Amino acid sequence: MMMMMMMMLQTARRPIVHIFLKWSQPVFRQVGIWSSGAKMNCRSGCCNRWSCEERLDNKTVLITGANTGIGKETARDLAARGARIIMACRDLERAEEARTEIVENTGNENVVVKKLDLSDSRSIRAFAEVINKEEKQVNILINNAGVMMCPYSKTVDGFEMQFGVNHLGHFLLTYLLLDLIKSSAPARIVAVASVAHTWTGLRLDDLNSENNYDTMKAYGQSKLANVLFARALGKKLEGTGVSVFSLHPGVVQSDLWRHQHQCIQVAVKIFSVFTKTTVEGAQTTIYCAVQPGLESQSGAYFSDCAPARCSRNGSNDDLAQKLWESSCNMLGITWE
Fold first, then answer.
1. Is 301 marked active-site?
2. Most C-beta atoms within 10 A of its C-beta, which of 122, 224, 243, 262?
């Protein structure tokens, strides 16, 4: 039936169908039907709800973008495990609403909200200064926040928005908190990337997409940067007791799709049976943050609560080092 539907769409002549196909391609590609001849797996092979009784009492977890989507569900789960949760969010009103809900659901009142705007290096530095001053430890840093396929715009510091927020913002945040994280070892750093990292390469000569901007390629580049950053950081932190992981959460029903053409939003609803709820989408993040015994796989990429193969570019150590150097230059920092 699905094959027939795709054949009908692909052979239709009406403009609206062609528009639907064009703008729905990101959905099809992520759930696996664009390039696999309509071969689909329900819920993208979702691990549904990962089961583990591991507790996080006396641990501190910092999550960016924890007021909505999979970030919120991650915060809810880890709060239920007894952790102190720091919700690092741009929208404080929505964050406070989410905090209230999480506290009511889990009974854990040790959940706090802090202002963080990843599109502004001044906000990142101010946030990190507060955390380093007020917190005794950060045992788990989850770089979750992000923007997806938005119209071309720039951060306060002049970086293309997707690359600036998804990669550079988290790169700087991790750099500023690293000493505290090291002193909290054993500790983990988790980067929420995406299978979108396979969509494109890394344009080292145009990381800000100033010569040519394609929403999908820019998003894919930012997610590839997440994978490469985790890989490089994992190697640099060997022997410190800090492990680093990147992951694909799956195609999740969240407000990350808010910047998309209406056709994409319609496609997400039509193919909702093949996508994940926010609870399901949070499971691999939770797995990487909590599952015992992952230390030997530091720097690795995960999907559906298991190690996964990333793209050739995503496993290119030379490319990872070049990105590292470019990121330091763009941010004006020295990080050996």
1. no
2. 224
